[in-house]
Amino acid sequence: MSVGDLTKPHGAGDTNGADDTEPVPDRLSLGVAARLARYLQVLTKAKKEGKETISSQELSSFTQVNSTQIRRDLSGFGKFGKRGVGYNVDGLVSQIRKILRTAGQHNIALFGAGHLGRAIASSDVFADHGFRVVAIFDADPEKVGTSVGALQVRDVATVPQVVEDEDIVVGVLAVPSSAAQTLADQLVLSGVKIIFNYSESLLRVPPEVTVHTSSPAVDLLYALYFYLT
Ligand SMILES: NC(=O)c1ccc[n+]([C@@H]2O[C@H](COP(=O)([O-])OP(=O)(O)OC[C@H]3O[C@@H](n4cnc5c(N)ncnc54)[C@H](O)[C@@H]3O)[C@@H](O)[C@H]2O)c1
């Protein structure tokens, strides 16, 4: 079964641009989307290291998805895979980015210019995948106006205006749990539909808004489950 088999295609003539015969899927199943994102993570790194091809076995060893599943998921991208040679890294990166709709540039607003916020702002973790931190906010008047890399810390009162001016699509919360819900509410009111939450706060948002909560300990519990079973 390929990605195409698991999804509902767009109407005729609406194509992904890379191959006129390949329709862009409307909706991926959660499992496929999660696996494609993991492949993309490995492929992006491989591309950065100048690797031209990658085999399903290599992808498997880095993603812990078995290679038969990988071949099935990627069978829709026939022209990128050659027996004995593997997949063309460049081609597969652009194809998966189109399918996950992550092609192009997406602007992030970061909340919290503390330890984590500063580390995120100065690293490539988001930039490697087409996300750019274009604004950083903090509630502490001592931090507002100071520099974090090329950015100046802004006052949270300016959120709605900055979201509009900077075309922000993602809000990243690197603030104490006690501050997260109020900021999430402000982001929702400003029209932001994706929130990446580093705090442990259980955020309440309307159904059209997606919250992803990053929790290393919970990821470890998941790994532990597979280790123990
Ligand atoms: N999930 C992870 O991997 C991970 C890792 C480290 C920290 N964290 C979490 O990230 C958060 C930040 O951690 P830290 O170590 O950077 O803390 P920190 O105290 O160094 O920084 C927090 C910053 O948030 C600012 N802040 C407080 N209220 C705010 C508001 N309403 N609006 C904007 N800014 C506000 C503070 O002034 C401070 O600058 C915490 O919730 C922590 O538990 C998560």
TrEMBL record:
<dbReference type="InterPro" id="IPR036291">
    <property type="entry name" value="NAD(P)-bd_dom_sf"/>
</dbReference>
<keyword id="KW-0238">DNA-binding</keyword>
<dbReference type="Pfam" id="PF06971">
    <property type="entry name" value="Put_DNA-bind_N"/>
</dbReference>
<dbReference type="InterPro" id="IPR003781">
    <property type="entry name" value="CoA-bd"/>
</dbReference>
<dbReference type="Pfam" id="PF02629">
    <property type="entry name" value="CoA_binding"/>
</dbReference>
<feature type="DNA-binding region" description="H-T-H motif">
    <location>
        <begin position="38"/>
        <end position="77"/>
    </location>
</feature>
<dbReference type="InterPro" id="IPR036388">
    <property type="entry name" value="WH-like_DNA-bd_sf"/>
</dbReference>
<keyword id="KW-0805">Transcription regulation</keyword>
<comment type="similarity">
    <text>Belongs to the transcriptional regulatory Rex family.</text>
</comment>
<dbReference type="GO" id="GO:0003700">
    <property type="term" value="F:DNA-binding transcription factor activity"/>
</dbReference>
<keyword id="KW-0804">Transcription</keyword>
<dbReference type="GO" id="GO:0051775">
    <property type="term" value="P:response to redox state"/>
</dbReference>
<comment type="subunit">
    <text>Homodimer.</text>
</comment>
<dbReference type="GO" id="GO:0003677">
    <property type="term" value="F:DNA binding"/>
</dbReference>
<dbReference type="GO" id="GO:0005737">
    <property type="term" value="C:cytoplasm"/>
</dbReference>
<keyword id="KW-0520">NAD</keyword>
<dbReference type="InterPro" id="IPR022876">
    <property type="entry name" value="Tscrpt_rep_Rex"/>
</dbReference>
<keyword id="KW-0963">Cytoplasm</keyword>
<protein>
    <recommendedName>
        <fullName>Redox-sensing transcriptional repressor Rex</fullName>
    </recommendedName>
</protein>
<dbReference type="InterPro" id="IPR036390">
    <property type="entry name" value="WH_DNA-bd_sf"/>
</dbReference>
<dbReference type="GO" id="GO:0045892">
    <property type="term" value="P:negative regulation of DNA-templated transcription"/>
</dbReference>
<feature type="domain" description="CoA-binding">
    <location>
        <begin position="104"/>
        <end position="202"/>
    </location>
</feature>
<comment type="function">
    <text>Modulates transcription in response to changes in cellular NADH/NAD(+) redox state.</text>
</comment>
<feature type="region of interest" description="Disordered">
    <location>
        <begin position="1"/>
        <end position="25"/>
    </location>
</feature>
<keyword id="KW-0678">Repressor</keyword>
<feature type="binding site">
    <location>
        <begin position="112"/>
        <end position="117"/>
    </location>
    <ligand>
        <name>NAD(+)</name>
    </ligand>
</feature>
<dbReference type="InterPro" id="IPR009718">
    <property type="entry name" value="Rex_DNA-bd_C_dom"/>
</dbReference>
